[in-house]
Write a structure and sequence with these properties.
The chain is an alpha/beta fold. 43% of the residues lie in helices and 11% in strands.
Length: 428
């Protein structure tokens, strides 16, 4: 069981993805046949709950539990919707792209099973605008699924109906936020919605809606095929399954690997990414995309799973690490990230649009040699004011994670910018 790579096992970089026939010959759509032929929707949900599958989009919420919040029964609201969040815009993250381009039928099958579990009649794939190869391959996969009776009316003679549509995003980071995504699908600005109500009870057009990430849904056929205990056994920790981990930055082999959940950071960095490139030393990393706290050398033996990374003050997020080396300026990197988030703020709430721009301005002045000593306290105060509970969604709190941790881990670098009135990493 250890060493299995169920999500990427059918992906080959030297060939196009399997078509429907090839996918079936490789065991594809057997899970869908099993679910529709011998399991009730409640049994599918329970199997996913027992597997301990948690959302791979960054938040890590328990997938089966999310599905269980959808009202069911004769009197429950209809129609219900399933939405695949494929709007992968987190900086440094490219894991869903691999799955979408490399094995589109796997995600289509997972989405159909998830839709069956919550009795959704319509499914949307909300895709990042720049993923044009993925769009073409998904369109082909969806068409083949209709032709072979996996989508449409009376799927495989089960009496269950489902239509699936591909929606290409207009291209804003906010469209990846769950409720901003739903607004965008309705043709509105991608502003976040107040919660409650949560999408599971009042989502797309006011109807029950489940939003799941691509990698999350790709796990579902394997859980149905092999069982919850098998899935849990793939992991090194209580967070079940495998995980697509990535590394970018000045490492020898930047890339993406499917490994047991809970693989230590040091193993990811040194064995799979090949260590730091010659002439560079490790200084820190963002463990799961741009909206996570920096970790330092003292955290290299931490297991990469949801619970363990949180215990040391960060989040696993998407599991795709961004590495900071000793020849790059941590203040400049933090300013660059803050610029991204300020630019991508939807402007819906004042702390986000106003606070992020002010933080970016102070960091820019530090980089240009015009920083003042009081900026350190002001930036730290903003990290609190823009934190959880002060904004409509997680964009600003996510933006504050690299800032607040950089102020602690790289304090001396911030102070040098102010004391020397210049960026020490730039030529005089």
């Amino acid at each position: 069981m250890p060493g299995e790579t169920p999500l990427t096992g059918r992906i080959r970089p030297d060939r196009p993805p399997l078509d429907a026939v090839g996918y079936e010959q490789a065991g594809g759509y057997q899970a869908l046949r099993k679910a529709l032929g011998s399991l009730t929707p409640a049994e599918v949900t329970q199997q996913v709950r027992s597997s301990t599958l948690r959302g791979r989009g960054g938040a890590g919420f328990a997938t089966g539990q999310k599905w269980s919040f959808v009202p069911m029964g004769e009197d429950a609201p209809r129609p219900r919707y399933l939405v695949v969040n494929a709007d992968e815009m987190e900086p440094g993250t490219f894991k869903d792209r691999l799955l979408l381009e490399g094995d589109p039928h796997q995600m289509v099958e997972g989405a159909i099973i998830a839709a069956y579990a919550v009795q959704a009649s319509v499914a949307y794939i909300f895709l990042r605008w720049a993923y044009r190869v993925a769009a073409r391959r998904l369109e082909k996969a969806i068409a083949e699924a209709y032709e072979r009776g996996y989508l449409g009316r009376n799927i495989l003679g089960s009496g269950y109906d489902l239509d699936m549509h591909l929606h290409v995003s207009a291209g804003r980071y906010m469209c990846g936020e769950e409720t901003g995504l739903l607004n965008a699908l309705e043709g509105k600005r991608a502003n976040p919605r107040s919660k409650p109500p949560y999408p599971q009870t009042s989502g797309l057009w006011g109807k029950p809606t489940v939003v799941n990430n691509v990698e999350t849904l790709c796990c579902v056929p394997h859980i149905v095929n092999n069982g919850a205990d098998w899935f849990k056994g793939l992991s090194r920790t209580p967070n079940g399954g495998t995980k697509l981990y990535g590394a970018s930055g000045r490492v020898r082999r930047p890339g993406l690997w499917e490994l047991p959940m809970g693989t230590p950071i040091r193993e990811l960095l040194e064995e799979h990414a090949g260590g730091m490139r010659e002439g560079y030393r490790f200084r820190g990393l963002l463990p799961g995309g741009a909206s996570t706290d920096f970790l330092g050398e003292q955290h290299l033996d931490v297991a990469m799973d949801f619970d363990t990374v949180q215990k040391v003050g960060s989040r696993m997020g998407t599991g795709t690490m961004i590495i900071l080396d000793d020849r790059s300026c941590p203040v400049g990197m933090t300013r660059n990230l803050t610029h991204f988030f300020a630019q991508e703020s939807c402007g819906w709430c004042t702390p986000c649009w106003g606070g992020l721009r002010w933080c970016e301005q102070m960091l820019s002045e530090m980089e240009e040699g015009r920083g003042r000593e009081e900026y350190l306290d002001r930036l730290a105060a903003h990290a609190g004011m823009l934190g959880p509970g002060h904004t409509y969604c997680a964009l600003a709190p996510g933006a504050m994670e690299p800032l607040q941790s950089a102020l602690t881990l790289f304090r001396e670098d911030f102070e040098r910018h102010i004391r020397e009135r210049r960026c020490p990493w730039r030529s005089p």
